[in-house]
Every structure is written in structure tokens, then in C-alpha cells.
Amino acid sequence: MKRILMFLVAMVLLLAACHTAPKDAAPERDGDPAIVEPPVQVVNEAPETVETAPPIVELPEQGNVYVTAPTLARIEIVTPPIYYGVRHFSEGFAVVYTRGYPNTRVSLVDRNGNHVTPQDRFESMEDFRYGVATARIAGGGWVLLDEHGNETPLPYEQVWWFSEGVTIVSTGGRRGVIDTRGNEIVPLGQFDNINSFSEGMTPVRDRQTGLYGFIDTSGQLVIPAIYERAYSFENGFAVVSGPDGAGVIDIQGREVLPIQFEQIGQYGDGLFPVQLDGLMGFANTSGEVVIPPTFEMKWMHPFSHGLALVNIDGRSGFIDTAGNIAIPPIFHAVTDGQNRFIDGVMQMWLDNSQVLIDTEGNQLAIGGNSPGHGFRIWEGGGEVLCRYIVMV
Fold this sequence. Notes:
Blueprint: H1 2-18, E1 40-44, E2 57-58, E3 65-68, E4 73-77, E5 85-86, E6 93-99, E7 105-110, E8 122-125, E9 133-137, E10 142-145, E11 151-154, E12 158-159, E13 166-171, E14 174-179, E15 184-186, E16 191-192, E17 201-206, E18 212-216, E19 221-227, E20 229-230, E21 237-242, E22 245-250, E23 255-261, E24 263-264, E25 271-276, E26 279-284, E27 289-296, E28 307-312, E29 315-320, E30 325-331, E31 333-334, E32 345-350, E33 353-358, E34 363-366, E35 375-379, E36 387-391
Parallel strand pairs: 2-34
Antiparallel strand pairs: 1-4, 3-4, 3-36, 5-6, 6-7, 8-9, 9-10, 10-11, 12-13, 13-14, 14-15, 16-17, 17-18, 18-19, 20-21, 21-22, 22-23, 24-25, 25-26, 26-27, 28-29, 29-30, 31-32, 32-33, 33-34, 35-36
């Protein structure tokens, strides 16, 4: 339990330490967690620039070491937490856990640590976004909260989080969409299988035909429901499928990749991982397969930092965007579900140990030989992401 508490607090501490808002951002986005977070002590920090391969950092036998990418600053907790858990600040407010499991209670605090909501009223709460937060009252019922803690009752069985100014609601298995005032944009049951919005749209299923299309945040069907499956837009593209396989469309609904592939993965660095005849290759946004499908189909990882993870003869390595081997296939697998480089680092399994590598294949750190004793690369939330590595 102690390690879990330290882990939760450390994530927020590191977010505060490297959360730098852009110059034109609102002042509250820079975060000031001093009220709800304990101080930290930097015990070892590597130089910002390293001309040779960075030194290997050995994981200690006991305790947690938190390593921020890319400087590998090691940080340890020196005082206990105030709450059972805390989240990052969003629009000047943060959700804090005032009671732990199984009788969890949460509250909303401002940047001065003042509670905007009662500390014992809500059992769950989403982050404050678009001027509101959704919260579930202990014992049942949902409300919308504004910045003063004022409540607007929501007559639904389930309420999601806000994305692009709207959120999904449901009752009796029927889904709809509401705005930040609680007004219904899409009535319950008009479409099946509505999901969170991304890039102004979300896929929906027509109740009569069973086919998928896309609606915008006003509830209008902007891409016709003609696909057997459809997935959320990301980087201006969405994967769709039909009788002949999977393809890709853009936000105007134009076909980018023809619907002929067995599978299509996540877009990155101008390329899509695609599967043909049971093997993986890569196609560009012009629909051309530019890296032939010759790699073993173990996973479909996107390009990041100019590299993509591939499987060759049962081992994992990395290729560049020209299809050349950039890091030899010496690794057994990825760890903790990471599918791309984050701030130039990635975690892998090598010889029964977890290792942290950079884009040159250099080993930055060596972890343990079990999932509970190694690395966890975590991306913080909020408007400005703070990325760091947690060694547990």
C-alpha cells in the first residue's frame, strides 16, 4: 500500500516539476500543486547533453526511483501525501481522493488547495474540462459541477467525461450526447455505439442498417453510415472497414487507403502499419505500400521518432522509414504495453530483464526481471503533457 501511495504522489509531483505552459496559455495551466503535494528532493541528475552513450542506471533493491526523460533526474519522496490520491490540474482545478477504496470519496480543489465541493459527497469525478466536471454522487445520481461547485442534476444512469465540449450519456443501454449545460445534442437511442469525440467527430452506428458513419459535435451526420466498422479519428485519419477489408479515410470522408487490407494500425511519421497475406508492411497517405509486408505479424506498432518496432525471426528490432534495420532485432518483447518511443525512450525485454533504450539502441537503464520491478513510462494529462519514466 505504501508503494502505491508513493507511486500516485510521485506522478503528480513530476507533472508539477516539468509542466511548463506555453507563453500564450492561461496562467492556471502551469499548475501549482504545493498545497496538495509533498516536496521532492533531487538526489542525482545527469547532464542535459551527453556526447557519448548515457550511463546505465542500476535499479535499487528497495524503494522507488523516478526518472524524468530525457535528463534522467532521479527523485525520491521525502514527506507523506495529504490525500489518498491526486490528479493533475486542469483549468485550475484538480480531483483529490479524500477517502480510499472501498468507500472512495473525491473532491475538487482549486490551486490554493480550497475544496470547491464537499469532501464526502462524491464517489467518482472526471477532470474539470470546458468549465465543468461530471461527478457521481455516493449512493447514485450524476451531476454537472461548475467552477463554484454548483450542481446541475443529470437524469442518466451513466455519464462519461467531456471531450471537445460534449460528453456521452446513457440510460437503459441507449446512448446520447449532451453539452456543458446539460442540453441533449443527440437524443438517447438515435444512434448505437456512440463513443468519445476526437478531432470534432465520433463514429456512430445507424440503428436501422447497422452500418457506421460519423457525427460532429452538433449531432449532424457528416460522413455517411456506409462502413461495417469505424474507429475514431487521429491525426486527421480514421480506420474503417467493409466486406473487402480495412481502409483509411480523412476528415472529409475521402478514401486515403483502399479498403483491401487485413488490418491497419496506428498512423505515425506519415505511415500506416498494414497487414497483407499475414505479414506486416507500411503504407503512406497516398495509398502506396512503401515498405513491403515482410515482417512477422506479432503486433502493429506505429512509427515514432522515425522508428517502428518490427518482429524478425521471433525477436524484436526497429526499422527506419525507408525499411532499413536501424536497431537490430535482439529484444524479446516490449513491456507495459508501450508501442512507441516517448521523448526518445522505450522499454524492452532483453535477456529476461527490462531495459530502457534510446533511439540509437543505447541502454539507458536496466530494470528487474518481473513486471513489478522495472519501468513504467507514463504520459501525464492536461493541456500540456509532461512525460516521465517511473522505475518501481
